[in-house]
Structure prediction request, 488 residues.
Amino acid sequence: MSNYEFWFVVGSQFLYGPEVLATVDTRAKEMAEELSKVLPYPVVDKVTAKTHKEVCDVVREANYQEQCAGIITWCHTFSPSKMWLNGLKDLNKPWCHFATQYNEAIPNEEIDMDFMNLNQAAHGDREHGFAGARLRKPRKVIAGFWKDEKAQKKIGDWMKAAVGVSVSKSMKVMRFGDNMREVAVTEGDKIEAQTQLGWQVNTWATGDLVKAMNEVTDAEIEALYAEYCSLYDIATDNIDAIKYQAREEIAMKKMMDAEGCKAFSNTFQDLYGMEQLPGLASQHLMSLGYGYGGEGDWKVSAMTAIMKAMGEGGNGASAFMEDYTYNLVDGQEYSLGAHMLEVCPSLASSKPRIETHHLGIGMNEKDPARLVFEGKEGKGIVVSLIDMGGRLRLICQDIEAVKPILPMPNLPVARVMWRAMPDLLTGVECWILAGGAHHTVLSYDVSAEQMRDWARMMEIEFVHITKDTTPEKLEDELFLKDIAWKLR
Ligand code: MN
Prediction:
């Protein structure tokens, strides 16, 4: 996890006198310290803001400091919003308005007018909320007692989404070759993606990668092979194929690290000079947190890297995925997801096996090595980012992954089986209506709400297909959103 931190900015004013302000200061410090112990990223108490200048100063500093991944504001007392307007207008970091109060209960005996003047977040936070609404400023509003686990979980989840914003703004994608010929949904406006999401998407020749592969030493290959042996079961005699994948991985990683890239794409249609499509190589790179997209799909590649960074420990169970085929038997309706090789082992329910098999698609001279495993059971989401022309749309669908209902002994790739919400067939109808791609990021540990937070912070359209979605309601929603987004 990178050294991200969040700044606690508490609102007040001079009206209540120095004693009240000293108490607010002490409490803000205490709250930041206690919250830092339970949240995924530290909360730094920055200032009790009482003036226009203090707000502008802290926003300017937050915008400038790379490690500040967002600000959390709260008005302990009433804090008139005109002093916040200029600062908040200029804020370009994620903002969470935490509507909390220091005390949990109203103290029956103690409560008097002094208590009321000190503890008036209930109206202070409403004045503060108006400023956000009036400015049309994207913000997360979380209400709850600051010691309550439910409120803390909400803040922690939002923090991870805010880290996803920071990761997005510095995202660099290395493309080996172009998109698969003639495919529409993997295309997109890279300038739009860069101005809206911050992504730098550029191409490197496959020949450059082959050159880098030829420079990899035997010692480097042996070291990575030993790592593969410690992580995975070797279920093939074709050790040369595994070592060839190690050569590919080392070369891709060196090229990406030299450029600061956290994601990559390639295509089976451009393997000139390579014996195997990277399979195991791409899978192991994904397990290290790199994003990947097949067939030149740079959008899904960047989204994979961002959602991994938003997951547990800064590298969660999120992976490039593709809907392949359905089981349409009544009562057992499931999607079978896989890819021709490249499924991230962060989804695996048990230790993956390295196997080698013939791959008919593409220009593979030799059988590529790949990890084969079953995906875990559990609730999750699938996410697709599409370019609607003039704007980006993020589609998120709730899913429930199951243990694959068939062993499928001749399927030579990793596989995940799930039921889309609200049910497979309605879910498919909704997904297709919204224009969702065949490529997705499947995640077990990033929630739909976090993706909604991320989309709000990136200021792009968000469509959520849930257990309550119907094609009729969705059609209306898409129609109205289309108009709204064209007006922006
Ligand atoms: Mn694909």
In short: Residues 294-295, 322, 339, 439 surround manganese (II) ion (CB under 6 Å). The mean pLDDT is 97.
